[in-house]
Amino acid sequence: MNTSQKSKTPLAKGGCSARGSTAVEFAIVAGTLVLTIFIVIDLSRLVYLRMTLEEGVRRAARLAAVCPIGDPLPAKAAVLADPAAQAAAIPGAGLTNVSIQYLTAEGGVITDPITSFSSIALVRVSLIGVQTPLLIPFVSGVFAPTNVSSTAGAESLGVSPTAVTPC
After folding, report:
1. Counting beta carbons within 10 angstroms of the beta carbon of residue 63, is it exposed (0 to 12), middle (13 to 18) or buried (19 or more)?
2. Are 147 and 129 in contact (CB under 8 A)?
3. Of 150 and 15, more confident
4. Which of 42, 56, 144, 165 is deepest in the core (most CB within 10 A)?
5. How buried is 117 (Cβ within 10 angstroms: 0-12 exposed, 13-18 middle, 19+ buried)?
């Protein structure tokens, strides 16, 4: 047998070609693993964001129940903004995304709460149009949560027997 035939025999049995197939297998497994890790991290981030949005509107509804009508503090609380700042702490949410509605005891929306002050029984705070981009590689899209709102029973609405008290 000549030497050129002997060197071809190990390759045919998978001796040297195994290194190449191992690298390909590693690339497939590593790519899948990294993509899975990104998906889990981004899903966790979006769940945290949703919970933060719900906490913000809950705080805002509580403030709107005790603050005067038109006070800016409940809207800032809905996006977890510092009362002295103009920017929101929640990414993708701003003061323009906050909706504060005053409701009757039956749940009907009061269009002019100042003239219908005595019929206000509930306050609803909602976040509308909040969008956050996804961070998953090779996936483009946005997370746009829906139905982020909280309702609280109206209390003093900033009015005491002697004066209107700002928040």
Report:
1. buried
2. no
3. 150
4. 56
5. middle
- If one compares 63 and 17, the residue with the highest pLDDT of the two is 63
Angle subtended at Cα 117 by Cα 67 and Cα 155, rounded to the nearest 5 degrees:
40
Residue ranges of the domains in the chain? 17-153
Mean pLDDT of the chain, nearest integer: 86
Predicted confidence (pLDDT) per residue in 85-123, tens digit: 666 678 888 889 999 999 999 999 999 999 999 999 999
Indicate the pTM of the whole model: 0.77
pLDDT band, residue 2 (cuts 50/70/90):
low
Amino acid found at 129: G
Using alpha carbons only, what angle is made at residue 140 by residues 96 and 149, rounded to the nearest 5 degrees? Answer: 35
